[in-house]
């Protein structure tokens, strides 16, 4: 007799089918429930541009910098203050104190969020006092690729013992491709400064703003007089002996203007092609032209042009139509523009005779005639 296994009853087959259906339903339900939260935990939608394409963090930073470079300064409206006063001898700068910093522009808000890093300066305005260094720095800070310290660090003449890390910490943060700058006019006449800057970096670019040494000396005296009204007269400080007309070169106001002597010290450590000389007179008469030379020297695109400036008749020098981080016209402070005291023509003539040979030497060294004689 052939054996055949017992067949399951219809009732058992129904129970198995029902059990499989329940298990399949539970599996589908669990899978469906996991799709939403699981996918959001794994895939993050990146920031996108107007066309829907993903935007990288680097692209965002580049776009901020590019935005500043495309600003249309010619569209800025301004109102020139005051009527013109009588012609008088004016200072381009009358104080070494820094101008108050304006708030950072919103397009550069990445700096306040911690972007960028602090670097040692690649370019330094090293002099000269009363030549126009503050004006040059304020003009340069309009450029989106320049970040500069507002106050004078005086690191290479007064604070060198604090070390390079202390100096670096004073610097503003910069993004890739931006230049860090500072200005301290007393570096130019500090004997140790060239060797110290060279030890930091031999590639540092140096900028010197020079001005007619006679006018510069009078401007220097004017600043001191404003702080100490009881100082001796300009004439008495200028001469060791009024009868012989011997100039007192120990007085700092006179000594600073012997540019050839100080430059010789710098050329022991830096080649001439790493030093740019800016004319303080042309910084007043043609600020855009001088700023163009500076931008070329720094290897930057010429973004600062004549459309950035207007001439303030009251103060007697150019002002910015729109300063860094501000929507208003900007001139240097109230201390800029004091009238020089009257100096006897004979004193001025003797000073010009004294400086003439030094000026001629300076013209030869720089291959540029500044026209002070």
Helix-strand layout with pairing:
Blueprint: H1 10-42, H2 57-69, E1 117-118, E2 123-127, H3 133-140, E3 146-148, H4 164-170, E4 173-174, E5 179-183, H5 193-200, E6 205-210, H6 213-227, H7 234-238, E7 239-241, E8 246-247, H8 252-255, H9 259-266, E9 275-279, H10 280-285, H11 287-297, E10 309-312, E11 317-320, H12 345-366
Helix pairs in contact: 9-12
List SSEs in N-to-C order.
HHEEHEHEEHEHHEEHHEHHEEH
Percent of residues in β-strands: 5-15%
Helical content stands at 25-40%
Mean pLDDT across residues: 78
Distance between the termini: 139 Å
Secondary-structure content class: alpha/beta
Specify the overall morphology: elongated
Question: Could you characterize the architecture of this molecule?
Answer:
- With 373 residues, the protein is of the alpha/beta class.
- The protein has twelve helices and eleven strands.
- Helix 9 (259-266) packs parallel to helix 12 (345-366).
Structure keywords:
single chain; 373 residues; alpha/beta; five-stranded parallel sheet; two-stranded antiparallel sheet; 11 strands
Report a brief summary of the structure.
This protein has 373 residues and is of the alpha/beta class. The chain has helices at 10-42, 57-69, 133-140, 164-170, 193-200, 213-227, 234-238, 252-255, 259-266, 280-285, 287-297, 345-366, and strands at 117-118, 123-127, 146-148, 173-174, 179-183, 205-210, 239-241, 246-247, 275-279, 309-312, 317-320.
